[in-house]
Amino acid sequence: MTDVIMFDLDGTLSDTHGLARATWLEALRPHGIDVDFGFYQENIRGRSREEALENILPRLESDERQRLLDTQDGYYRNRLSAAGPLPGLIPFLDRASEKGYRLALVSNAPQEIADKILHSLGLEDKFAVQTFAEEVEAAKPDPAVYRLALERLDAEPGQCLAFEDSPKGVTAAINAGLRVIGMAATHSPAELRDAGAALVVGDFVDVALDDILERPDASKEYEYLQDGEDEKNA
Q1: Which residues, listed in sequence order, are joined to residue 162 by a DSSP beta bridge?
Q2: How far apart are CA 86 and CA 16, in angstroms?
Q3: What is the DSSP track for 80-101?
Q4: What does the angle CA 45 – CA 50 – CA 54 come to, to the nearest 5 degrees?
Q5: For residue 97, how many C-alpha atoms fall within 13 Å in the half-sphere facing its CB?
Q6: What are the two backbone dihedrals, phi and then psi, of residue 15, each rounded to the nearest 5 degrees?
Q7: What does the alpha-carbon distance between residue 162 and residue 181 come to, in Å, rounded to a whole number?
Q8: Rounded mean pLDDT of 111-138?
Q9: pTM of the model
Q10: What ranges make up the beta strands (E) of the chain?
Q11: Beta strand pairing status for 102-107 and 199-201?
């Protein structure tokens, strides 16, 4: 029986990607680059900061590139205190705790940054276990960080449900043996379904989540329904 719910952090609990877009707009403005949603999705999302900058401004000297990265990082850290939860998150976590679910955080974010975000959300003590990519040899889409969470919880994959906002995160959770609910905050529902999410929701207010808290295996039913819709539309 499912009694563990695991959560990614960035884009799943909070729209930190919105904060990131704002910092890149501020950092790249002196270079005449407007970072709108489309530009961010195409050139920055899903890449490391170093990869993104190399792609955007490939002719920058190494020292200038590092200064820009340091500037962007400073802008981002200054905004962390403004991070807010996705709609419905806090009531959902409270309901899950009341029903006896164990909650875990499984993030690619550095712990220092994650701690600041959790503090801004008021969730420092909400999770029984917290794991971060820096604690394992490979980040998502590698499942190592999920396997570490399973080990710390002494839980089997079949007991667990994961919430993820990116295809990489969905892949990591599935490869660790978990069923996944996709949060369509930063990627399209189709991208998340293609990665293997059993159900995709827009936020934690979605009524389907009430059903899943009452009947955790209901996520399988949504997966079967989704498969049927895909066949119908083929």
Answers
A1: 6, 180
A2: 10
A3: GGG--BPTTHHHHHHHHHHTT-
A4: 90
A5: 13
A6: -80, 65
A7: 6
A8: 93
A9: 0.85
A10: 4-7, 102-107, 129-132, 160-164, 179-183, 199-201
A11: unpaired
Find the helix or strand (DSSP H, E) in which 116 lies.
Answer: helix 111-121
For the chain, helix, strand, coil in percent to 5 are 55, 15, 30
pLDDT tens readout for residues 22-35: 999 999 999 999 99
Half-sphere exposure for 40 (CA within 13 Å, toward CB)? 17
Please count the residues of the chain.
234
The phi and psi torsions of 186 (rounded to 5 degrees) equal -125, -15
Burial of residue 183 (number of CB atoms within 10 Å: 0-12, 13-18, 19+): buried
CB-based contact 107:132 (threshold 8 Å) = yes
Is the pLDDT at 234 greater than 50, yes or no?
A: no
How much is the mean pLDDT over the chain?
90
The residue to which tokens 């981002």 are assigned = 76
What is the percentage of the chain residues whose pLDDT exceeds 70? 92
Burial status of residue 149 (CB atoms within 10 A of its CB: 0-12, 13-18, 19 or more): buried
- Is-contact 6 104, C-beta < 8 A? yes
- Are 121 and 14 within 8 A, CB to CB? yes
Query: Which element (helix H / strand E) includes 139?
Result: none
15: amino acid identity, one letter: D
Cα distances from 218 to residues 55, 87, 165, 199, in angstroms, run 42, 22, 20, 10
